[in-house]
Amino acid sequence: MTLPAPSDRAYVPFVSVATMMELIHAVGLETMLVELTDAIEAEFRRWPAFDKTPRVAAHSPDGVIELMPTSDGIHYAFKYVNGHPKNTREGLQTVTAFGLLADVDTGYPMLLSEMTMLTALRTAATSAMAARHLAPQGARVMAMIGNGAQAEFQCLAFRAVCGIDTVRLWDIDRAATDKAMRNLAGSGLTLVPCASAEAAVEGAQIITTCTADKQAATILTDNMVGAGVHLNAIGGDCPGKTELHRDILLRSDIFVEYPPQTRVEGEIQQLPADHPVIELWQVITGAAPGRRDAAAVTLFDSVGFAVEDFAALRYIRAKLQETGLYDRLDLLADPDDPRDLYGMLQRARAPGRPVSAA
Amino acid sequence: MTLPAPSDRAYVPFVSVATMMELIHAVGLETMLVELTDAIEAEFRRWPAFDKTPRVAAHSPDGVIELMPTSDGIHYAFKYVNGHPKNTREGLQTVTAFGLLADVDTGYPMLLSEMTMLTALRTAATSAMAARHLAPQGARVMAMIGNGAQAEFQCLAFRAVCGIDTVRLWDIDRAATDKAMRNLAGSGLTLVPCASAEAAVEGAQIITTCTADKQAATILTDNMVGAGVHLNAIGGDCPGKTELHRDILLRSDIFVEYPPQTRVEGEIQQLPADHPVIELWQVITGAAPGRRDAAAVTLFDSVGFAVEDFAALRYIRAKLQETGLYDRLDLLADPDDPRDLYGMLQRARAPGRPVSAA
Predict the structure, then answer these.
(1) pLDDT of residue B2
(2) A108–B94: do the CB atoms touch at under 8 Å?
(3) What are the backbone angles phi and psi of residue A311, rounded to the nearest 5°?
(4) Out of B69, B329, B333, whose CB is closest to A116?
């Protein structure tokens, strides 16, 4: 069948996984991590401009599927993301994602993008953004607890953004640590594989936890966290899923993205609903204090928020305009007369084919 | 750059607008409307099985962008849809949409599809489904008020599903009526263009209203609606946007899809929150009465609900398996080792390109 080609308005720029990887290499991974950190921080700086809502989650026994929308009144973005820790047993990923950027004025999509890769980058960039406001001055050593799909991106973002030079790695599965060591060889980081979480945190000024079990775990106990440490807790991001012992929370200054979501999903689901937390955007604008003193324990209770994906999608769209690295997807019907969708359908019928409606 | 081809797990079946039109013609539009009506009814019949939530709307001065998720615990679906009545002035469509079907067990997408065309079909099929349970016996004449993009699909669905043989058309813009008349010529329907809404409803046993202004309008006044009529009100589907005079509602038996959403968006936003309504699924299962008697005025206060899109996406996926009419979209990263997303990115680097992370 010969169809008239859809018009420009019918096409949505599309970034596949292969194209995203090509784009990351074209920009350079560390450069992209740094630029994404700045892009996300720029959006946090204008936090009140966003229409915010906790993500819309569909929970099942083995995982969760979430939609994460937000808008600044000019652009609208949402991400589809799943979290299924048991997937890795079947050779599937724990987290896959894609996202959309749209024009609020018309409702028309402007970009559809894979976000499995992009979420890995924006999560690392968000952690680094928080740490550059909260970590103790001169921090050089990070403990990386949980060495799965997110680990290398975290390590590289902390190197590029915060000046970390040494990473102490531990995972319950030594093969994961070995994988991260291989991948980070040549990154410029000093890599120290550790035999336990206790060993990994020794001498670390920053402790990043990023484990995947969908349950309340105690990756860190209270005695493992010394004064002056910054905790970057990524894995507790789902109701019933936490990583830190409650006692750690009670002596930490706790920083969060969006309290209504973190209260349900983050480490602080272990605390009363009125336990004081500080919104990260207020630290960035200077409206709230960050680290009080060198001895304070700061905790970024990270669950991932829609504004970070919004920032990442806007960043990618700008890069597409520079690089031309995208495909065009025939996602939108574009009839000559917008009221004549049926006429468009009729005209798409192959000549000589009987009128199906007759 | 030569990349290894993504594996089957990385690909998501994709139905573009062109492919959807090809699929509709391959099946036959009226056949598809009938099959969609049955598919949607089958899901309404097992209504309690669905995880339901009012759609998540981002309102702006000129329109709305909505996400409509639902799940039956086996499959998960959501639709992205906008509504921007002013778009037609710029040659754009009021409504565009796309949707996704996913596997709850893994969170992996199973189908990404255009839904501008598909929403037009499922909306018509849902209207026809309601009418075959609610319209007076032997109804043959429908008034079609509002002759925009949805009009022809409504007329054809009511012909195929309910046995309507005559349509009385009216639109505030005569050009829209002319367009619908041209499109429906040869459909087997007797078409009667009318000079006013009052003229259009004369002798009609079913009145369908489908106008697009984003405001409280009075397309039908109380004196225009006689005893025994079935009202199929589609256009009132947004806070502040209604089509019927309140007095009509007060003497109608009102049937809705999902009360928490319809209370906010439908015609019944004009009524107190405790005004009695009947859930359509209960009529279909026999748990609630439909039409009480020949003189009753029945009103389907239709706003569109996620379960209808779920049904439509499942129907399309089944058709893809029969016809092979789809593309494959590289939407999901699929590393050999699911914990090694970074390794996948590294291996995608062109040989000889410097290590960007170093």
Answers:
(1) 40
(2) no
(3) -60, -45
(4) B333
> Nearest to residue A217, comparing CAs of A305, A59, A85?
A85
Distance (Å) from the alpha carbon of B199 to chain A's nearest alpha carbon:
23
Q: Are B231 and B142 in contact (CB under 8 A)?
A: no
Q: Which residues of A touch B338 (CB under 8 A)?
A: 87-88, 91-94, 149
Alpha-carbon distance B343 to B348, whole Å?
Answer: 9
Give the up-direction half-sphere exposure of residue A334: CA atoms within 13 A in the CB hemisphere.
19
The amino acid sitting at B6 is: P
Lowest mean pLDDT across B6-20, B51-65, B242-256: B6-20
Residue B26 Cα to chain centre, angstroms: 21
**Residue B29 in contact with residue A355, Cβ under 8 Å?**
no
What ipTM does this complex have? Answer: 0.90
Cβ-count burial of A137 within 10 angstroms (0-12 exposed, 13-18 middle, 19+ buried)?
exposed
C-beta separation of B297 from B250 below 8 A: no
Q: What is the pLDDT of residues B31-45, one digit of tens each?
A: 999 999 999 999 999
DSSP single-letter state for residue B168? E
Helical H segments across chain B, by residue range = 17-27, 29-45, 116-134, 151-162, 174-184, 197-201, 246-250, 259-265, 280-285, 306-323, 341-347
Q: Searching chain A, which residue's CA lies closest to the CA of residue B212?
A: A339
Q: Is B166 on the interface with A (CB under 8 A)?
A: no
Dist CA A20 CA A347 (whole Å): 36
In the chain, the amino acid numbered B79 is K
- The count of C-alpha atoms lying within 13 angstroms of the C-alpha of A312, restricted to the half-sphere facing its C-beta, is 32
Angle in degrees, 0-180, between the axes of helices A151-162 and A174-184, rounded to the nearest 10: 40
Using the predicted structure, report yes or no on whether residue A214 has a pLDDT greater than 70.
no
Q: Which of A321-335, A340-354, B266-280 has the lowest mean pLDDT?
A: A340-354
A125 has pLDDT over 80: yes
Three-state SS sequence of chain A:
CCCCCCCHHHEEEEECHHHHHHHHHHHCHHHHHHHHHHHHHHHHHCHHHCECCCCEEEEECCEEEEEEEEECCCEEEEEEEEECHHHHHHCCCCCCEEEEEEECCCCCEEEEEECHHHHHHHHHHHHHHHHHHHCCCCCCEEEEECCCCCHHHHHHHHHHHHCCCEEEEECCCHHHHHHHHHHHCCCCCEEEECCCHHHHHCCCCEEEECCCCCCEEEEECHHHCCCCCEEEECCCCECCEEEECHHHHHCEEEEECCHHHHHHHCHHHHCCCCCCCEEHHHHHHCCCCCCCCCCCEEEEECCCCHHHHHHHHHHHHHHHHHHCCCEEEECCCCCCCCCCHHHHHHHCCCCCCCCCCC
Chain A residues touching B109 at Cβ < 8 A: 80, 96, 98
pLDDT, position B45: 98
Give pLDDT, residue A145. 96
Give the strand pairing for B75-83 and B278-279: unpaired
Pick among A182, A331, A336, A346 to test the B interface (most B CBs inside 10 A): A331
Residue in B114, B67, B64, B65 with CA at minimum distance from that of residue A11: B114
CA B334 to chain centre: 33
CB A228 within 8 A of CB A299: no
- Starting at the edge strand found earlier in the chain, the sheet holding B75-83 runs B56-60, B63-71, B75-83, B97-103, B109-114, B11-15, B327-330
> What domains are defined for chain B?
8-117+308-347 (3.30.1780.10), 136-304 (3.40.50.720)
Q: Can you tell me the distance from the alpha carbon of A327 to that of A3, in angstroms, rounded to the nearest whole number?
A: 19
| Torsion angle (degrees, nearest 10) of CA A144, A149, A155, A156 | 180
Q: Do B31 and A149 touch (CB under 8 A)?
A: no
Confidence of residue B351 (pLDDT cuts 50, 70, 90): low
